[in-house]
Amino acid sequence: MTARTSPLDAVHRALGAKLVPFGGWDMPLSYPAGTLAEHRACRTDAVAFDVSHLGTVRVEGAGALDPLQAALTNDLTKVGPGWAQYTHLLDADDASVVDDIIVWWVDEERFDVMPNASNTSGVVAAIGGEDVTTTRAVIAVQGPAARSRLAEIAPGAAAVGRFRVTEAHVAGVPCTVAGTGYTGEDGVELAVPADAAVHVWDAVLGTGVQPAGLGARDTLRLEAGLPLHGHELGPGITPLQAGLGWVVAWDKPGGFRGRDALLAEQDRGVARLLRGLAVAGRRPPRADQVVLVDGSEAGVVTSGNFSPMLGHGIALAFVPPSVEVGDAVAIAGKDEPVPARVVATPFVAKVR
Predict the structure, then answer these.
(1) pLDDT tens for each residue of 163-176
(2) Domains of the chain: residue spans and CATH
(3) Mapped to the 3 state alphabet, what secondary structure does 160-175 carry?
């Protein structure tokens, strides 16, 4: 199957990006500056990510809220039009996370539901709506200077509140803007008409914002302790195991898909929990490495890498619920086990 490409594909190639397959798309992994430099630029200044591989499912009309409420774990009535909300779509049988999703409630009768790259068709099957992914690009401007730089070309977009959604002009182009991101830093995401994506991207970079790829996006989200579908979420993994019970509106009228199975797990207690691990030294832990507790196999690393800001290895891992913050564990290596300690997440403080 031919990989899909972003409306910004030619721009990435002109900038010397290294492109890799991701969720059925060719997307930039990094630019010539490299992942470490891009990561640090996001923590200290501002970067722009092309995240057009994320899906957009538009649900509109007088009854648009109902199928979302019936399918998704969180309760949209806790917010309202002009807000974004993080939520999960669960498997009806075992309550594992089919996808984790941001819903942009754009106006009273329009929801832009943002699934992960490869899950869009499954989300459409669950909630209805129209897949409008090809009509737009999504540019995430992230970092402590993101808003001040964006204000040069889009004061309205720069002013959008945290987890708020608005319509604003960016470099003269009407866009949908959300105060969300996936880095642990402040910032906004811009849904831009596909035919104007290059113009907006160039304008954003013209303010001094640096381009960044999926490599930095992954190390940033790991430092922030944020889950990645296919690693910390996915088949066999429930919100309770991932420590994300706060996205579950247990008492929502009508319930949600997978509620009975999730309630059963809550009643019996989870068999594992997601924890953060810190490893001394620069050698990074990697996904699928075994976690040892008292010398015995007890868990598995789901994501691991070198933390550019902390200067040592960090990981997320599923371990028994009895393993607590402060406990010493180890990660099985090719030779000797590598000592690690269970730590609280986020590893690096993030915007709340």
Answers:
(1) 999 999 999 999 99
(2) 4-52+133-223 (3.30.1360.120), 57-117+238-269 (3.30.70.1400), 271-352 (2.40.30.110)
(3) CCCCEEEEEEECCEEE
pLDDT for residue 352 is more than 60: no
Q: For residue 130, give both structure tokens.
A: 């129209």
The residues that bridge with 60 in the sheet, in sequence order, are 110
Q: 């086990």: which residue's tokens?
A: 337
Residues 6+ apart with CB under 8 A from 277: 285, 291, 301, 304, 314, 315, 316, 317, 329, 331, 340, 341, 342, 343
Q: How far apart are CA 131 and CA 352, in angstroms?
A: 30
Q: In whole angstroms, give the CA distance from residue 246 to residue 244.
A: 5
Q: How confident is the model at residue 79 (pLDDT cuts 50, 70, 90)?
A: very high
Residue 80 CB-density burial (10 A; 0-12 exposed, 13-18 middle, 19+ buried): exposed
What is the structure's pLDDT at 333?
84
Residues β-bridged to residue 166: 177
DSSP state of 17: P
Query: How do residues 95-127 score in pLDDT, each as one tens digit?
Result: 999 999 999 999 999 999 999 988 999 999 999
pTM (2 decimals)?
A: 0.96
Long-range contacts of range 128-132, CB-CB < 8 Å, 24 or more positions apart? Answer: 128/59, 128/67, 129/57, 129/58, 129/59, 129/60, 129/64, 129/67, 130/57, 130/58, 130/59, 130/60, 131/55, 131/56, 131/57, 132/56, 132/57, 132/58
DSSP assignment string, 201-268? HHHHHTTTPEEE-HHHHHHHHHHTT---BTTTBBTTB-TTTTT-GGG--TT-TT--TTHHHHHHHHHH
The single-letter code of the amino acid at 150 is L
